[in-house]
Amino acid sequence: MNDDTLTIKRSYRDRGPLPVYMQYNGQNRPQPAYLQLDADGTVSVDYSGEVGGAVPMRVWNGVDIRWTIPPELTVAGIDELINALAPLLAEFHEHHAVEWDDGNQVGRMDTRAREIGEDITAVIESGEWEAANVADAADWCAPVLDEIREDYRRASDKDAYLDALREEEYARNGVFLVGLNALRRDLEPEAE
Questions:
Q1: Residue 168: partners with Cβ closer than 8 Å, 6 or more residues away
Q2: What pLDDT band is residue 171 in, cutting at 50, 70 and 90?
Q3: So what's the pLDDT on residue 66?
Q4: CA distances (Å), origin 29, targets 70, 134, 157
Q5: Helix or strand run (H / E) with residue 42
């Protein structure tokens, strides 16, 4: 059905230690992360920019296919996962077609593509991929909040201080801190 070769976009490598992790302010969980196989054979990873699970029309119509991946995957974990899935993705792509149907392009999968799709899901869910521990910054820093507050007060660039704190905790403990804005509120002096 498709004889295109796969193109793997690795731009995620430039987006920090957890490239598909995004938790918007006011949300109690991260955005869904996904691995996507476009109809042209392009493989990419990202997080959904939409709150509430909306998907683009090409995904809805099965032209481009998405599989959910853990948002806590590190760059190395994503590399490992894509490398492990590449043969399955290539075979899936061979059994996936795009057709014109009543005014829309739609994806069509044969029986083998459906089987491979299930295999891809099983590989992703095996959990063998490097992932980081994620912690709420205010909770993680609570035992040493007074010390951090003093360092924060002395810092000339508050944003740089919080970024450095996140990087230090990740390098030292393998913990990626989220919710830095809430921590910032805890560190700011109270208005009198």
A1: none
A2: confident
A3: 97
A4: 12, 11, 28
A5: strand 42-47
